[in-house]
Amino acid sequence: MSSIIKSLVYTRFAIRTSWPIWWNILNRTPRALFAKNTPILDDTQRRLVEGLKKDGIVATTLDELFPGQHMLATLQAYAKSLEPNAKSRTKKLFLKHYWDITPQLDLNNPFIAIIINKRIVDIANSYMEMWTKLKYYTLIETTPVGGEDAVQSQRWHRDPEEKRMCKMFIYLTDVDEESGPFIYTPQSVYGKKYGHLFPQRPPEGIYPPEEAVSRAIPKEDVRVFTGKAGTVLFCDTTGIHRGGYARSKPRLMFTAFFSAPTFSEPTRYTHPQGFAKTAESLDPAVRYTLEP
Ligand SMILES: [Fe+2]
Asked: If pLDDT is split at 50, 70 and 90, which confidence band does 1 have?
């Protein structure tokens, strides 16, 4: 790319991701929809949204979210049925994808049932303070890399594209220090204690060196999210994070990304025929998150 085009691209992204424009102008409509339909949260949802707003990340479990429903066993059994077809589908060969990069939305997939559950959508929307769009969902096994160098997402970074994001991670296997836990700096999103450090540089982002991050952020302010299978994290990945550097043990993790509608990359799933009809029975905020 010529340097003029490159600087135009950066300028365009810098403008669209500046807070006043992103918040007040570009996302005015989804914010108004949320304001008109503000959900009433239960105690668990409120704790999670407050944690997200305070730190940019909060942890829970499938059992806390869905008491008595044995959700972990259901998800693990479903994952097991897909395992024979799991393979690397991108240049990141250490990642085994359990379904296509752009799957067809299947409402019978129990992972989909979870993410379109109104309680989950309400958590994401309440953190984002707008009606969000589900942009992708993945089930990925991170295979051990031994002593190899960490690649992009395994290194410290901020997701670059938006001012605020909400991802939901579900660990399907026990995750310890050896299996690539998600690592996050609480209070590193826009406007918080560490929000000014290593600012986003859209479109491709910024990957500050390990030493620069450890100089700027004391170790005790970094959290390593090890956890049992069934651990669920809600996280704003515009904050400083890394993960998936599995040394000796694999990690199976589900990810769902709820975004402001401004996210410019294509949605990474397709809709089955007749989806519009099926969607009529869904709650309006859930329908909005799935609609093309
Ligand atoms: Fe990331």
From this structure: low
Distances in Å between the Cα of 228 and the Cα atoms of 73, 157, 172, 173 are 13, 25, 8, 7
Cα of 165 vs centre of ligand 1, distance in Å, is 11
- For residues 164 and 124, what is the distance between their CA atoms, to the nearest angstrom? 11
Distance, CA 245 to ligand 1 centroid (Å)? Answer: 12
Q: Token pair 């989950």 is at which residue?
A: 120
Q: How far apart are CA 52 and CA 253, in angstroms?
A: 20
Q: How far is the CA of 288 from the centre of ligand 1 (A)?
A: 25
pTM, to two decimals: 0.95
Q: How far apart are the first and last CA of the chain?
A: 31
Distances (CA, A) of 63 to 189, 198, 230: 28, 36, 8
Q: How far apart (Å, rounded) are the C-alpha atoms in residues 272 and 120?
A: 22
Please classify residue 118 by burial: count the beta carbons closer than 10 Å to its beta carbon, then call 0-12 exposed, 13-18 middle and 19+ buried: middle
Q: 150: CA distance to ligand 1 center in Å?
A: 13
Q: For 213-249, how does the pLDDT look when each residue is reduced to its tens digit (9 = 90+)?
A: 999 999 999 999 999 999 999 999 999 999 878 888 9
* 203 prior amide bond cis, ω within 30: yes
Which domains does the chain show, CATH number per domain? 3-290 (2.60.120.620)
**Ligand 1 centroid vs 162 CA: distance in angstroms?**
12
**Ligand 1 centre and the CA of 37: distance in Å?**
30
Output the CA 277–ligand 1 centroid distance in Å: 35
Mean pLDDT for the stretch of residues 275-287: 95
Give pLDDT tens digits for 170-183: 999 999 999 999 99
Q: What is the mean pLDDT of residues 263-281?
A: 94
Q: What is the CA(275)–ligand 1 centre distance, in A?
A: 30
